[in-house]
Amino acid sequence: MIVLQESASAQNIDFIPRTYTSGNTYNVTIVNETTNTEVHNVNTTSITENLYYNRYNAIFNLKQDVTYNLTIKSGSNVIFKDKIYCTNQTNLMDFTLNQSEYIFNDTDNEFITL
Prior knowledge:
Blueprint: E1 2-4, E2 11-15, E3 26-32, E4 38-44, E5 48-49, E6 54-58, E7 66-74, E8 77-86
Parallel strand pairs: 1-8
Antiparallel strand pairs: 2-6, 3-4, 3-7, 5-6, 7-8
């Protein structure tokens, strides 16, 4: 999962694609998971290749506490899919998606010995 912020400045999406060819045109689509509406749909050649990953830098119109689906395509081939969560939390090491929700794990721990 990629974590981005609600911001008017450019942010990076770092990813490892299935395939990559420098100079190709890629379609980057971000869809709101709740409303199923596109918030970002761009054809770009500005994906840069780093040593072990690729980077896409752009300004995204994201809202806080919303989950999005990210799809990057080369023509009709999907080269990367992931989820984006938008939060303005600064200390992400202590943050979880189910914060303040109790998760009950129901087991009876019964063992049968013969």
